[in-house]
Automatic annotation (TrEMBL):
Cofactor dependence: heme
Pfam families on file: p450
Protein family membership: Belongs to the cytochrome P450 family.
Lineage, opening ranks: Eukaryota, Metazoa, Ecdysozoa, Arthropoda, Hexapoda
Keyword Hydrolase in annotation: no
Residues that coordinate or bind heme: C441
One Gene Ontology term from the biological process aspect of the record: organic acid metabolic process
Keyword Oxidoreductase on entry: yes
Protein name (record): Farnesoate epoxidase
Length: 495
């Protein structure tokens, strides 16, 4: 009997050892972390550089801790596309600080599930109605670029140099303002622009102080962590946009929307289902949050990309000369560039792609959170896991680019430089500035049109060279959610 039991136990043991489904370990390993703070101290300044360094040490998938929460850092093009393309990855990193920006779980950027889906779809449809991807937007943007050129010429005539960022900021604000409220910004009214500046500064500061990730800092250090400042700038902006919204309501005629705000008014007006995210008071809160997000997400990104691009061209005269030559050949000097020229201007496109790559403006993208458990490359990723897209690392990975530190648009061209390399090549696929998957930036088409029209028209008319009082290239930046080039001035001569 004992022998039989022994044999049975042995058979069971062998069977389980051979045929038991192996439980995948939950998370890949990563750097050691501190209780409560996790890896936040290591990532306090230039976190993107630290995460890139760790990607070399721990590989394309590793775990860090944001405070107490585990976060999977993904540093490879294919893995990023696969993971962020999964429906489970459409959740969002949620903290009280993030919800402070939208006054609760409202809008598109910080929401998830049905609320996010309904609001995102409506926003995309509305933006398309008012110009996205349509030829009607082109003359509006071109007229903003003309104003920018006049402003630059005036500043250069009076002061010798121009702080170009202000010019881009004003132009992009106008384009977005025009879509949102059907109007142009009054040139001398800087109220909105100042509110946005303060709002962005306070968000950048909250990333540096750690408040953005560790909301409990607001309780122990509301002033030092920048919480009070963040609340003030957010309140001011919500106040301003709220008044704009109410003013629009006075002149709104149901059935004939003039702009994005009218579309929201119409939708709120016609929604009778209490379960809808457009119903009642919550509907209005979603509308206000989304309108602010259009500026928050669209203005800073587009204007700082143009700013960086000018800085790179100023210090890479050879690239600027090739850009000038292509614009002269395809567009000439006697007409405005048009989006239809794009297909014939691969060098201009390559300059834009190279700028998006090398600057990695949003170096770690926007963090997502897993909505449910999934298996991924041998790991069991749990619900609630934070996902960090390490786009900066991909954009600077020697294995992909060879010489990532060099600004070299030619890398995006075929050998004879007559056209862009294939869109399915690893190089083209690894420009991830707009992130990837179902939450990918919905402003990408507008941003790409704005970048193309600005670059082609500005450099059709002007030549950028360094400010003689600080001729050395300075590519240093302020880090936060976005990497902001240090202020600089340039000489911009008429061609
Ligand atoms: C160079 C310009 C731009 C860059 C680099 C950029 C980058 C990004 C990134 C990295 C995200 C995060 C996506 C994610 O969570 O997966 C994002 C989201 C978003 N962007 Fe952009 N963006 C740009 C321009 C714009 C413009 C012009 C608009 C507005 C019209 C815009 C509106 C949005 C919105 C609403 C979201 C949230 C999408 C969602 O969560 O579903 N962006 N953008």
């Amino acid at each position: 009997m004992i022998t039989e039991i022994f044999i049975l136990a042995l058979v069971l043991f062998i069977y389980r050892t051979l045929f038991r489904k192996k439980e995948p370990s939950r998370l890949p390993s990563g750097p050691r972390s501190l209780p409560l703070l996790g890896n936040m101290l290591d990532m306090k300044r230039n976190g993107h550089l630290k995460l890139s360094e760790w990607a070399e040490e721990y590989g394309p998938l590793y775990t860090v801790r944001i405070g107490m929460k585990p976060a999977l850092v993904v540093s490879d093009t294919k893995l990023l596309k696969e993971l962020f393309g999964h429906a489970a990855s459409t959740g969002k990193f949620k903290t009280d600080t993030i919800f402070e920006l939208t006054k609760g779980a409202y809008g598109v950027v910080s929401t998830e599930g049905e609320l996010w889906h309904e609001q995102r779809q409506f926003l995309i449809r509305t933006l398309i109605n008012f110009g996205f991807g349509k030829p009607t937007m082109e003359p509006i943007i071109l007229s903003d670029v003309q104003e920018a050129i006049d402003w630059i010429k005036k500043d250069v005539a009076e002061q010798g140099t121009v702080e170009i960022f202000n010019v881009f900021k004003s132009g992009v604000t106008n384009a977005l303002w025009c879509i949102v409220s059907g109007d142009r910004q009054t040139k001398d009214d800087h109220t909105f622009s100042l509110l946005i500046d303060a709002f962005v500064d306070s968000i950048q500061n909250s990333v540096k102080s750690g408040l953005f990730f560790l909301s409990w800092l607001k309780t122990i250090a509301p002033e030092a962590s920048g919480y009070n400042w963040l609340v003030k700038t957010t309140d001011d902006l919500h106040d301003y946009v709220g008044k704009l919204f109410d003013k629009h309501r006075e002149s709104f005629t149901p059935g004939s929307p003039r702009d994005v705000i009218d579309c929201y008014l119409e939708k709120l007006h016609t929604t009778t289902d209490p379960k809808s995210t457009f119903y009642g008071d919550n509907g209005k809160k979603n509308a206000l949050a989304t309108i602010i997000e259009i500026f928050e997400a669209g203005l800073v990104t587009s204007s700082h990309t143009l700013n960086w691009l000018t800085l790179y061209l100023t210090h890479h005269q050879d690239v600027q000369a090739k850009l000038h030559a292509e614009i002269d050949r395809v567009v000439g000097r006697n007409r405005d560039p048009s989006l239809q020229d794009k297909a014939k201007m691969p060098y201009t496109e390559a300059v834009i792609l190279e700028t998006l790559r090398i600057t990695s403006l949003v170096p770690l993208g926007v963090m997502h959170e897993l909505l449910y458990d999934i298996d991924f490359h041998g790991y069991r990723l749990p619900k609630g896991l934070l996902l960090v897209p390490n786009m900066y690392h991909v954009h600077h990975d020697k294995k992909i680019w060879g010489d990532p530190e060099n600004f070299r648009p030619e890398r995006f061209l075929e050998e004879d430089e007559s056209k862009l390399i294939r869109s399915d090549s690893i190089i083209r696929n690894s420009v991830l500035a707009f992130q990837m998957g179902q939450r990918k930036c919905l402003g990408e088409p507008l941003a790409k049109d704005v970048l193309f029209l600005y670059v082609s028209k500005i450099f059709q008319n002007l030549h950028a060279s360094p400010d003689p009082s600080s001729p050395k290239p300075n590519f240093e930046y302020d880090d936060g959610i976005v990497l902001i080039a240090n202020k600089f001035r340039v000489v911009m001569d008429s061609r």
